[in-house]
Amino acid sequence: MPRARNFYMTARFDPAFADANLESIWSRACPDPIGPWDDLWRLYRAGVPADELRDVGAINAQIRRGRWVEDQSGHRAIILPVMRAQELIDLVAFRLETPLTFFSHEGLAAVLGVDELERAAYFAQPLTVLESPLDWLRARRRGVVVINHEQFWPFHLAGIPALRCTSVEFGRRLRATLQRPFAIPEIQVPT
Length: 191
Hints:
The structure is a single chain. The protein is of the alpha+beta class. The chain has one domain (15-179). The chain has 5 helices and 9 strands. The longest helix is centred in the first third of the chain and has 15 residues, at 15-29. The termini are far apart. Mean pLDDT is 81; it is low at 1-18.
């Protein structure tokens, strides 16, 4: 059954291929239903609550062309599924040593925690925006992390009265992201 396109997916998205590919990678990153034990212990020691260690994987990865790819000679990375309406749409990777640097696998997701974004918009409540996936786990997956600043636009925030940031500097960077100009499509009129 084809899925409806939304603003979290690009026009080049092939759902059948991506779903199979992401599921395959996820099964290797998280072969145990609970997770990769050594990596989970490192996350716990980094301040992630024990009950938030579900749906966390780990894999060796390299960064290529702005995305992460599985590579046995790469660095160990923590993998998180990006879900929307209980559907896997992408995977995000980060290293515990550099949690502010993170990458998407498919480049499809603009936000980690999109359900939180939609909930804040629906109830017209402030939205917490966190700097990294590690911060998001520490916050018990409450709030969002902007994964792809090129895909994240002010219209994603319609109905949200305020954004809560963890620091003044991060708030400035987020404001700059939201204030950047964007390309307006060509307007054509029949002649």
